[in-house]
Each structure stands twice: as structure tokens, then as C-alpha cells.
Amino acid sequence: MDPIRNPYAPGAGQRPPELAGRDEQVGAFDVVLERVARGRPERSLVLTGLRGVGKTVLLNALRSQAVRKGWGTGKLEARPDQRLRRPLSSALHQAVRELAHPEQDQADHVLGVLRAFAQREAGPTAKLREQWSPGIDVPAARGRADSGDIEIDLVELLTDVGGLAADVGKGVAVFIDEMQDLGPDDVSALCAACHEISQSGLPVIVVGAGLPHLPAVLSASKSYSERLFSYQRIDRLSRAEADRALTAPADDEDAAFAEAALTAMYAATGGYPYFIQAYGKAVWDLAPRSPITPEDVAVAAPEAERELAVGFFGSRYERATPGERDYLRAMADAAVAVAEADPAGEGVDVVGSVATSDVAVQLGKKPQSLSPARDSLLKKGLIYSGERGRIAFTVPHFGRYLRENA
């Protein structure tokens, strides 16, 4: 097969040639955009799922929808070591520019408020190099979004931005990736601002994406967050959707998969979009001709697994300390023990979790002594806790990788 015509795209956040299995989310978001632009009440949106299911890809696709509708949009990626003000200021600056409000004075006023919001991060005694602003030429406004209380300031800022969008009959959407990494104060402020904006009927929404425990993070901040956001779980693809992700791009290149090859691909990938792209690329490069056969899949599987072991699994494993790696391996072993005790269960490699007490049993230690390793792995985003006393890998098939390689 000609590698130059290989249509598959295994990359972080890189849109695949066929966005299979996300038609429902794309269609629902079109409705949200139209309702908000017309002043109808609508909730902000939160996408959750494991790594490799395509949350970032979908987030970017939804942003493209908003851009085509003439909305102002901005995107940021939350980081544990960064406060919200600066990246949000950059995102909203882009959104205001995209709105292209015809009255420059009104646009300049909002940009002044935005600059005041951004500069409040540095404080009044900060040196010149620390007084960061997102390329805004107008002077900072006074007495608006500059109190220093992130909750007050964010409500005031989004109110002004929303008013600007309402003037032109459009909306503003802020897209936040890795939303679970926002600090507690920033999460609380964001929830409060979304609550206030929705009550005011202003055309501003937040679209967040994060790991499966993100709803718990939001709920712990504000109890009403359960009703504030529309939560959508992004999961692995069904067999039919996974087949479409492979066959549609192949059809465009006048190639095909044998039915048995599709069966083998689904068994290897588990329906996870990132794995589908990784295996698809390897199989295409190594298959001698079309149609691609199950034998071609068997030959290419080791190459795909090597790529995943380095770029997807290995890079995460390397971030862990020796003690944390022991904890991860014990999680994988505990999952096997659970699966052997209940053969009908799916185990942690798919969507399940294991008890922290079972991990302690595997290591022969008391659960309390393992708290530092567990907490560090949680902060590094390698595991998550969806319920008290239980943990799971954020990466599908990570347990299998650990047992076979680590």
C-alpha cells in the first residue's frame, strides 16, 4: 500500500479523516448554538472520558461548528501549575476579535475590561515584564473585573463579553481542555460565572473536556454544577462505528478491508479512536495490497504496539517514580485478580476500577502508607478516582501494557 496515501492520523488531538461515532454530540451542539444565539436558555457542556477516546478532537470539532455560525470562540488547556486568568484572557481576546463588533468604542471598552482582568494576576507592584496582557492596545479599565476576587471578576468579565455578543446576534463559546486540572478557586469561579450568565440569558457558554472524574470535581466546588452543565460521556466506539472509522478513509483512497480484518482490528483496538488510528496507519503501511486481510493485521500489530508503547503508554509510565510504578503495577495485578474471581467482569483495562485496599494487598502494605504514591499519581493524571476508595487508569489498556512491558 502506498504510504503517501495513508489516510490515518494517530496524533494527540489530531482530527481523524472520519469523525465516527460522534454524530449525536455534533448534532446536539448545533441545537445549543442556535438556541443560545436566539436568547433561549441552554446549559454549558462538559465532555468526559478516558484518554484516547477523542475528547480533544471532538472539542475542536465543536469549536469549528461555532466558528461557522459566526460565534466568537477561544480555547485553552488547563494546567495544574497555572491559574485561570491569563489563559482565559487570551481565549476571550480571540473570541472578542472574532465577533468583529461594528461599534469600536464598545469593543474597546470590553477589551479594556479584559486587560484589567488579565493584569490583576500580576498585582499592582509587579515588574513590567510580569505585567502580562494578551496583545490589547487599549488601556485597562478601572473598577471592572479587577477586584482580585476571581469569582467576582469573572462574572463581570463574562457579562460584558456576553453583552457584546448579544449586540451582534451571536454568541461566545470558551473551550477548556483538561478541565479537571483547574484549581479549586478557578473551578468555583467558573461555575459561579456560568450560573450568573445563564440566569442573565447572555449568549455565553463554556465547553469543557476532561477525565471521567471531572463531574465530581465540579460538584465538589458548587453543588448546583450538577444542573449547570450538560454532561456527555465520550466512550470507545461500537463495532459499526469503529468499522466506519477505518473503511470510510480507505474508500476515499480506493482501498478496502476484508470483514475478517475489521474483526481483528476491533479485537486489537477495543474500539478506542486513538488505537484505531495507530493500528490503521501501521496496517496500511505494511499491507502489500488491497483488500487488507486479517493476516496483514497480524503482521502490523507488533509495529502498532511498539508505537503505542513509546508514544502513548511509555511517555506516561516514564513520568512515574519507582514507587509510583510499583503502585501502577499493583493496580494492574489487582484488576487481574478481580477478573479471575469474576470472569464476566471487564476489569480495569476497559472501564472498571479497583479498590485501593486491593492494591495494598498486592503490595503487602497498609493502605495509609500508599497514600502519597496514590495522590501523586492522581495529580499526574495517570489514575483517577470516580468514587471513594476506588481508582482506575486514565489510559485504556494501560494495565495490559504494564503486565507485558513494565
Automatic annotation (TrEMBL):
Q: Which residues form a coiled coil?
A: none
Q: Where is the Cytochrome c domain?
A: 166-317
Question: Which GO molecular function, any one, fits this protein according to its record?
Answer: electron transfer activity
Q: Which UniProt keywords apply?
A: Heme, Iron, Metal-binding
* Record has Lyase as a keyword: no
Q: Does the keyword Metal-binding apply?
A: yes
InterPro entries listed in its UniProt record: AAA_16, Cyt_c-like_dom, P-loop_NTPase
- Annotated region Disordered: the residues are 1-23
Q: What is the protein name given in its UniProt record?
A: AAA ATPase domain-containing protein
Query: What organism, scientifically named, is this protein from?
Result: Nocardioides psychrotolerans
